[in-house]
Amino acid sequence: MALNLVVSLVSILISSIFPQPRAFQHPHDLFGLSPNSANFISSTSSPTSSTSIPLTPSIGAPPLAPALFVIGDSSVDCGTNNFLSTLARADRLPYGRDFDTHRPTGRFCNGRIPVDYLALRLGLPFVPSYLGQSGSVEDMIHGVNYASAGAGVIFSSGSELGLHISFTQQIQQFTDTYQQFVLSMGEHGANDLISNSVFYISIGINDYIHYYLRNVSNVQNLFLPWSFNHFIASTIKLQIKNLYTVNVRKVVVMGLAPIGCAPHYLWEYRSENGECIEEINDIVREFNFVMRYMIEELGEELPDSKIIFCDLLEGSMDIIKNHRRYGFNVTADACCGLGEYGGWIMCLSSEMACSDASNHIWWDQFHPTEAVNAILADNIWNGLHTNMCYPMNLEEMVVSKEK
To answer: pTM of the predicted model, to two decimals?
Structure first.
């Protein structure tokens, strides 16, 4: 039985690495990969992309923002990596088993991710993956999700997993989207849409998981954590300034999650009794401090901008420390995975998953369950459970009127 399970898992792993051999005949195609070219790729994929999700908010009041644009990594990927040859794919069950459609969509979760909840709060439908829509303005008018699992601020972060769309590439994809809006609705119309839309940025954790903590290129001897944190934060700051030049004005920047509590590191560092690895969380805590300070600087530098920073570590640690109040009784073990804490092997099959994810904090090695995402989304929206966004929450950003 054990041998059969291992053989089965290896088979799944191999098929995940090279799921679509025809997708990229030329590596340089990746940078400028467009939805139109993705349509060809998707013809060889399973029919579970985000385009098949018919989810819309309740009919009623007009939306609080015309669109939601998402830039990031697996924390907010809604299907980008379904179209890429990579290990970092969530296109098979049990991923998505508790989602509205009960099918995998590319979200690294058993159900919804934070931006799904926030889209509905804004009065918008779930926004599609950039590679999972037709490329028409009609498909993108309410927003686009450019996030790609494995992506980092550093181009090579996560590259050992396979192809991904890096932070810089995602910014370029948004620029291409903006140009399409200009051609379709004119410069004034495009600028009005973009300046009133919400931009959600959640990236940087892979620069630690797949680069700094692995000591790639001897980076730990070249950069102390403080210097590395400054480098990552300042790069994000620079890209936000670049977005500002194309009339982006409302931005939510997410801090890093407490990966020192993630099942993978509990397994790797042989945690006793599920205790978090504080040396890792200290690096994350320091990064979030630096990023929050830089966001405050940006707010002063960029006129008419509303940029908020949400401390994901702060919000997540509140859930972990007060787990019983939130209804969680499994705080260290992943719902889906193998090895101690479920942190050794990634979630590959339904047989590896627990029966009920709602009482778990962690879904797999690194990602939280839908239940945790719902709580964090509430905090981002209005600080319902704990205040983790500064200097305001998202609701205050979109409903406040200019004086």
So the answer is: 0.87
- Given a contact cutoff of 8 angstroms between Cβ atoms, the answer to whether 381 and 303 are in contact is no
- Look up residue 82 and give its two tokens: 């379904």
pLDDT, block means (10 residues), the chain with 403 residues: 42 40 32 42 35 51 95 98 95 97 97 98 97 91 97 93 96 97 96 98 97 94 95 97 97 98 98 96 98 96 97 98 97 97 95 97 98 98 97 94 46
pLDDT of residue 135: 85
Rounded Cα gap, residues 144 and 142, in angstroms: 7
Nearest to 336 by CA among 363, 371, 370: 363
Residue 386's Cα: distance from chain center in Å? 21
129 φ/ψ sector (left φ>0, alpha ψ -120 to 50, else beta):
beta
Residue 345 has φ and ψ, to the nearest 5°, of: -120, 140
Q: State how far the alpha carbon of 339 is from the alpha carbons of 108, 198, 200, 318, 363, in Å.
A: 19, 40, 34, 26, 14
What whole-number distance in Å separates Cα of residue 370 and Cα of residue 96? 10
Domains along the chain with CATH numbers: 27-257+278-313+389-397 (3.40.50)
Q: 């609701």: which residue's tokens?
A: 395
Q: Give the per-residue pLDDT at 268.
A: 97
Residues marked active site are found at 74, 364, 367
Which one-letter amino acid corresponds to residue 57? P
What integer pLDDT is reported at residue 134 of this predicted model? 87
DSSP H or E stretch at residue 235: helix 225-244
Take residue 168 and report the two structure tokens written for it: 């810089």
CB atoms within 10 A of CB 371: 22
Q: Take residue 72 and report the two structure tokens written for it.
A: 């990031």
Q: Cα separations (Å) of 61 from 43, 120, 123, 359, 381? A: 37, 12, 8, 34, 18
